[in-house]
Design a protein that fits this description.
This protein has 5 helices and 3 strands, in the order ββααβααα. By secondary structure, the chain is of the alpha+beta class. The protein has one domain: GIY-YIG endonuclease (3-Layer(aba) Sandwich), CATH 3.40.1440.10. The relative contact order is 0.25.
């Protein structure tokens, strides 16, 4: 998962819970940091450790643009995106290691 480009990801605290959309060049490292509580802010405050969605982009600028757009989406659109690929809101963390 450490490739040129970028990743957009969504974290939650539980199925249908609080959502956080983020972007990174290194998905494994970033998810590990969030799960370990190393990143202060929204994800730490609300205990968002469940990786429920991610997508890869060939260029980091495309990932940043996608993240920016997704942050403006209605919650229902984000939930729909998640359940299209992850109906049970499973944590994908183990699968990316």
């Amino acid at each position: 998962m450490r490739q040129k480009g970028g990743w957009v990801y969504i974290f939650t605290n539980r199925p249908n819970g609080i959502l956080y959309v983020g972007v990174t060049a290194d998905l494994v490292r970033r998810v590990g940091q969030h799960r370990a509580g190393e990143i202060d802010g929204f994800t730490l405050k609300y205990g968002l450790k469940r990786l429920v969605y991610f997508e890869r982009h060939d260029e980091i600028v495309a990932a940043i643009a996608r993240e920016s757009a997704m942050k403006k989406w209605r919650r229902a659109w984000k939930v729909q995106l998640i359940i299209e690929d992850n109906f049970d809101w499973d944590d994908f963390y183990e699968g990316i290691l």
